[in-house]
Amino acid sequence: PLMSPKRSEHVRLFIPGPVEVRAEILDAQSDWMVGHRSSDFAALYGRMQPKLQQTFYTQNPVYLYTSSGTGIWESASRCAVRDDKKVLHLTCGAFSERWAEVSHLNGKEVEVIAVEWGQAVKPEQLADALSHGTYDAVACVMNETSTGVRNPIEDYAKVLEAYPDTLFLVDVVSIYAGAKVETDAWGIDVCLTSTQKAFALPPGMAFGAVSPAVLERAREIPHRGYYFDVLEIDKHHQKNNTPATPPVSLMYAADRQLDDMLAEGLEARFARHEKMAAMTREWVQRAGFEMFSEEGYHSPTVSNVANTREIDVAALNAFLRERGMVISNGYGKLKGKAFRIAHMGDTQPADLEALFAAMDAFLAEQA
Asked: Which residues contact 88 (CB under 8 A, 6 or more apart)?
């Protein structure tokens, strides 16, 4: 018979997704299966909805997508930007650049404000672009996972108040459930995340809080596709359902995790993330490295560390893996030049202390 993996072989993940998932959350997926057109399923969908709205700080519906967050990029690009209009993408790393590419591949006319990796896009840059051009939407990433930069979304929101016809599309994939995302207060029209980051679930599902303005806009766009069409999704949402087959087991896990997040208290959860981010930055300084992200714009969920000591990141990870833990190398062109430590989801300060002790041991051997 096949043996289940031994708990002793468990490698604790300090990577920015998929993140460490608690045993209780893994177990929640093993509830008996139900048909997704049944009343049992509608009850599951229905009880998740107010909890999702609470965690997104929104009155808008929060749709459930059987995809990664990338699926909602495609949904937002297709449903919020008309064929003869433009979308303005703010890019500052691999994922914000990729979303701009997704818009382009879906036939949208794309303009970009690009900054160096490690920098944040400043609200003045957005204000300048909006004063010179007309856009159906502005699309940006709140927390750029590849660089460890947290963009000042709330400042973009103030700029966009003067442009009511420009929809605000925000990827909060690696920060939702790790810091407050005020969807309604910031006027976000599509606020999207996925399960495998600070929400601390297995990958495979995404959520999008979508405003009425997006539904209105979508009605003006003839070719929205089917799988990610917000009008089709909304029609089924009204009946606590989805157009296509949803990931029922992951929904059980999400329902349990939402309860646990609300029991911890959202403000307490966000404070824990801030504390772990501060601990990480303190370790970076103590260990003789520097932050890759711009001062004042460090992410509360993932720290990108400039490899100023030029250590062998692969060797560090091999050392850590022997001790049952792993971090992430730099992303893309930053491989070897930086490394990333995720401090998100259900990770606790004590977990980070154990990680830093192991990293210190590795560094001591290098001396």
From this structure: 111, 112, 113, 126, 129, 130, 133, 135, 137, 138, 139
